[in-house]
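Lab meeting, item 3. Inverse folding demo.
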């Protein structure tokens, strides 16, 4: 009789172990995929924040270009290499740079 109960308990433990193994086999890949997707979502969230900041800066620059003539002059001089009539522009070439 004692052997019979021992055999039943061993079988019960084996069945429980099998069920736990099946559950882990089914859900472990899903949990890893969820972890990967959360990391990807966080990366995308950071990208969106960077792009939003860049958009705010571009909008500020656009407003300045529309409203501030001194800013327009500054941009024309720096980015487009424009000069006022009668001004002389000196360009220095660094010989060390390829």
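The presenter then showed the designed sequence:
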């Amino acid at each position: 009789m004692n052997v019979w109960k021992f055999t039943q308990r061993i079988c019960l433990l084996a069945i429980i172990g099998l069920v736990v193994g099946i559950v882990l086999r089914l859900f472990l890949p899903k949990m890893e995929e969820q972890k990967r997707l959360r990391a990807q979502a966080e990366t995308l969230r950071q990208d969106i924040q960077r792009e939003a900041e860049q958009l705010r800066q571009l909008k500020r620059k656009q407003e300045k270009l529309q409203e501030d003539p001194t800013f327009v002059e500054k941009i024309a001089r720096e980015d487009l290499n424009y000069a006022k009539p009668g001004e002389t522009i000196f360009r220095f070439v660094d010989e060390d740079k390829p």
